Amino acid sequence: MDWWIFGPNYGSANGTLSLATALTQSEQDDLKTELEKIKNDVPFNVVKSYSVSATGASIVAKGPWGGIRAGGITLGFKF
Questions:
Q1: How far apart are CA 23 and CA 30, in angstroms?
Q2: What is the pTM of this model?
Q3: 28 domain-assigned
């Protein structure tokens, strides 16, 4: 059993987000613009790379995360 009242949490995460669909040139340009904004605006350089093509897009992200958790109980069972 784990019981917490208030406290910080910190960790890291990584992953790839993929989109498989047909994109027009206009959609590709718009998506590249938005992804560049996200890459530049998100702190800690989380978006490592992205690619956009006529057949879809993908984003590679890796970085830290942090937060505050407040109040909870966790029960665990071993099998």
A1: 10
A2: 0.69
A3: yes
